[in-house]
Design the sequence.
């Protein structure tokens, strides 16, 4: 029964996709209160959306990598700054104590 239902559902989906490919020349997608326009049939729309998702994921991964590097840079600058201040404060204390 389940296999028969799965085959029927797959056949229905294929028919709907074939129908959409035959009648659609423009697709408008509403997401997050924003309209996105696509030209071409349903297959072109699906392919374009998948490509855009891959591009978006790569952008996200690059941004995360950039954030990681910036945090590491800031942390290393902070360590150098603390070291500089310790030396400067030590020199100032030595001058007040009369040490050369």
Sequence:
């Amino acid at each position: 029964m389940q296999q028969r239902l799965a085959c029927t559902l797959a056949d229905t989906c294929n028919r709907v996709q074939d129908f959409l490919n035959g009648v659609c020349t423009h697709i408008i997608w509403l997401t997050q209160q924003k309209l996105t326009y696509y030209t071409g049939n349903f297959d072109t729309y699906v392919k374009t959306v998948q490509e855009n998702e891959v591009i978006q994921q790569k952008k996200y991964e690059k941004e995360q990598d950039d954030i990681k590097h910036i945090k590491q840079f800031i942390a290393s600058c902070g360590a150098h700054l603390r070291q500089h201040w310790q030396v400067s404060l030590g020199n100032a204390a030595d001058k007040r104590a009369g040490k050369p």
